[in-house]
């Protein structure tokens, strides 16, 4: 049975699961298929494209299809760290198995589409220069600012509907709802931290901002990939002094409460642990993943103040930069991890 291919089609291993455009067969992740770049679809290696869907591809397939099935592709390259600690270690030149232009399912990439047990150390994503168009634009605080604008527009429309011709006066005199204002406050904090992180970006300091967690409406504020590992950073713009209150002992269970002023921020620790679990599921155990809660504009003391609770760092921006810089390096391919995270966690 022949494999049909147009001039732009490519035989490859699928990064994610898909469905054959021609016969409708479900194609599992890591299975060999043909990626049709012109239409951004996939098909079985044995299916010939239909003339009504792609006449040029069909004509080329009829003329060029071989008599026998193409030989199976060689084993995909491994990206285990090379001896120098940078760059993928390969078993030889292999193009088809590591083709970077593989299709992705509609919407954000899903962890469920990754093969069971997949790890960044064994399943190589595309090279950064080849997959740059697929990384998405990273804008810190973008989703929070969009939500603020949506709520602001909704609130103003309600005032117009209620006050009619007097709406301009009512809008001028009213105070913005706190539930709406909180979104722009958070957006400003994410933007400030994102700008500072981007100023440090380079070959050994990669940043991703405002990335959507697959299968959820939640997002990750900042992902930083450095030789020391992956840093998951949640930016918050709370007022007050951060402190860890420890109560109990002997006759009562010990409880730890993270406070910022009078505000109980303990739930942020649970949220960070969930983010860390999702990132670790993607990259595997061989790449260190650490969490940071960064409180911007908080009332930090002049001396000390850093908090470490349940393995999560609670810091101010400058302390975050210093922590990342002094943490020992790990052995993994930064470029590959950057691409993997960017294609899994799409822009929110």
Automatic annotation (TrEMBL):
> Which InterPro entries does the protein's record reference?
NERD
- The NERD domain is annotated at 185-302
Composition-biased stretches, type Acidic residues, lie in: 93-104
- Which residues lie in Basic and acidic residues bias regions? 77-86, 144-156
Question: What is the organism of origin for this protein?
Answer: Tessaracoccus aquimaris
Annotated spans, Disordered: 63-113, 128-156
Question: What protein is this chain from?
Answer: NERD domain-containing protein
How far does the signal peptide extend, from start to end residue? none
């Amino acid at each position: 049975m022949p494999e049909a291919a147009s001039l732009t089609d490519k035989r490859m291993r699928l990064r994610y699961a898909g469905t054959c455009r021609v016969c409708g067969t479900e194609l599992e992740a890591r299975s060999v298929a043909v990626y049709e770049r012109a239409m951004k679809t996939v098909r079985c290696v044995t299916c010939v494209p239909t003339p009504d869907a792609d006449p040029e591809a069909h004509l080329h397939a009829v003329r060029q299809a071989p008599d026998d099935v193409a030989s199976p592709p060689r084993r995909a390259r491994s990206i285990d760290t090379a001896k120098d600690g940078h760059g993928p270690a390969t078993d030889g030149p292999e193009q088809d198995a590591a083709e970077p232009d593989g299709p992705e399912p509609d919407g954000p990439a899903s962890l469920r589409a990754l093969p069971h047990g997949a790890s960044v150390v064994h399943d190589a994503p595309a090279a950064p220069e080849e997959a740059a168009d697929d990384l998405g634009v990273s804008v810190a605080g973008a989703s929070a600012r969009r939500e603020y604008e949506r709520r602001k527009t909704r609130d103003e429309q309600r005032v117009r509907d209620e006050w009619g011709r007097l709406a301009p006066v009512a809008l001028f005199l009213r105070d913005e709802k706190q539930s709406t204002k909180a979104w722009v406050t958070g957006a400003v904090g994410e933007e400030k931290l994102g700008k500072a992180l981007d100023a440090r970006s380079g070959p050994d300091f990669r940043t991703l901002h405002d990335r959507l967690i697959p299968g959820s409406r939640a997002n990750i504020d900042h992902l930083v990939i450095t030789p020391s590992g992956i840093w998951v950073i949640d930016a918050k713009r709370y007022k007050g002094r951060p402190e860890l209150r420890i109560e109990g002992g002997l006759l009562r269970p010990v409880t730890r409460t993270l406070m910022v002023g009078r505000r109980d921020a303990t739930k942020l620790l649970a949220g960070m642990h969930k983010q860390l679990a999702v990132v670790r599921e993607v990259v595997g155990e061989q790449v260190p993943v650490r969490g940071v809660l960064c409180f911007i504009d908080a009332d930090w003391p002049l001396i000390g103040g850093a908090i470490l609770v349940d393995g999560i760092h609670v810091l101010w921006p400058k302390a975050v930069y210093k922590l990342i810089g002094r943490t020992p390096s790990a052995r993994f391919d930064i470029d590959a991890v950057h691409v993997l995270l960017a294609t899994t966690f799409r822009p929110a």
